[in-house]
Write a structure and sequence with these properties.
The chain has 366 residues and is mostly helical. It has two domains: 1-117, EF-hand (Recoverin, domain 1); 139-327, Helix Hairpins (Orthogonal Bundle), CATH 1.10.287.1700. The protein has eleven helices and two strands. It has helices at residues 2-12, 16-26, 32-49, 61-70, 77-87, 97-104, 109-113, 121-223, 229-244, 248-335, 342-356; strands spanning 58-59, 95-96. It starts with a helix and ends in a 10-residue tail after the last helix. The model is unreliable at 362-366 (pLDDT under 50).
Length: 366
């Protein structure tokens, strides 16, 4: 009995998955095949509750209670301990998965310890190696898929932002160019007005100069001792007549026009400054638009890189598919041989099916 207890203790110290496989192998033809999916679920729950997860082998009293509750068996502390005493075949105060399965399906310690495990050890090793390879491939593909998803999400945001920025920049550029064009027109109008006023002022000044030059000329002639009396009299008469003309309107007009010209000159300088500012803004906006365009091009290049990455992931998925198919075919070959550990093979197939849930849906086979 001591030897039997020691053997059972060795079994209950195996990891949860190994305990499940032991039970499935040993009682495959005695109802375990029909219960395989339930045993899979029991095992996953044990792993979920154990802080050691897949490395665990048994639950303490608290977590055993939680487990039984999850199976719809809400018990009082007294009832729980009574049940655990019945389940705890090695009497260590904890509940191993194999103890739970033995209790649930009415198997004794001798039956469990002597449960046949199959004789195809080498085939199982090869099958396990193939499963490990497939699971590694799954993990790598999943990693690539997650990375690709993250990259695509970031690129989508970047593309949307670049598109918005480009549209806004082009609109700003159009507005800046329009403002600059309109400002140049205003400046030209002011320049034209300035030129017209300057021409008017120059003309008035010319008339005023002619008036004063004429008076000076006639004064000189009327006072020239070398001139004849007739010539001096004529000059004096013309001078008197010219002086009778009122120069005030001409002078007033000149002053008014000069004031208007100074005002227009001031406005022209203001418009020149405004045009210069509008031109600088237009250049800045044009540079921003160019940057936005370059950003959009960079996003396009990123999309191309992402497409290349997508092709790599798809190739990895195809390679994983091939590995899955190869593993499935080998499992079928092993199952047809004698001395098969059916539980272990079923478990491998179930793990393969579970892993495939995380593959792209169009690539799943099971």
């Amino acid at each position: 009995m001591t030897d039997l207890k020691s053997r059972f203790l060795v079994l209950t110290r195996m990891k949860y998955v190994d305990q499940a496989k032991w039970y499935l192998n040993g009682f495959w033809t005695q109802g375990a095949e029909a219960e395989a999916e339930n045993i899979w679920a029991f095992t996953q729950k044990f792993i979920e509750l154990d802080s050691r997860k897949k490395e665990g082998n048994e639950l303490d009293e608290f977590w055993s209670h939680k487990y039984l509750e999850s199976q719809g068996e809400t018990l009082t502390v007294v009832a729980l301990r009574e049940k655990l005493r019945a389940i705890d075949l090695d009497a260590n105060g904890k509940m191993a998965l194999l103890e739970y399965l033995s209790f649930k399906y009415g198997k004794g310690v001798p039956e469990v310890c002597d449960a046949p495990q199959g004789t195809n050890t080498e085939e199982l090793k090869k099958a396990t190696a193939k499963l490990d390879a497939v699971q590694s491939a799954f993990a790598e593909v999943q990693k690539q898929l997650e990375e690709q998803k993250k990259v695509l999400e970031e690129q989508k945001k970047a593309e949307e932002e670049a598109a918005r920025s480009l549209v806004a920049s082009k609109k700003s550029q159009e507005e800046a160019d329009k403002a600059l064009s309109e400002q140049k027109k205003v400046e030209e109008i002011v320049r034209a007005a300035e030129a017209e006023l300057k021409a008017a002022v120059d003309d008035l000044k010319s008339q005023e100069d002619q008036y004063h030059n004429k008076i000076s000329e006639l004064t000189s002639k009327s006072e020239d001792p070398s001139s004849s009396t007739v010539a001096k009299s004529k000059a004096a008469a013309e001078l008197a007549q010219l002086k009778q003309e009122d120069p005030l309107p001409l002078r007033k007009a000149k002053i008014t026009q000069e004031a208007a010209l100074r005002k227009v000159e001031k406005e022209r300088k203001a418009q020149e400054a405004a045009t210069k500012a509008a031109d600088a803004k237009a250049k800045d906006v044009a540079e921003s638009a160019l940057n936005a365009e370059n950003a959009a091009k960079a996003c396009a290049e990123a999309v191309k890189a992402s497409e290349a990455k997508k092709a790599q992931v798809e190739k990895a998925v195809e390679e994983t598919e091939a590995a899955v198919k190869e593993a499935q075919e080998y499992f079928e070959v092993v199952k047809k041989q004698g001395g098969v550990a059916h539980g272990a093979i079923w478990w491998m197939e179930r793990e393969l099916k579970e892993a495939q849930k995380y593959m792209p849906k169009r690539k799943q086979n099971l």
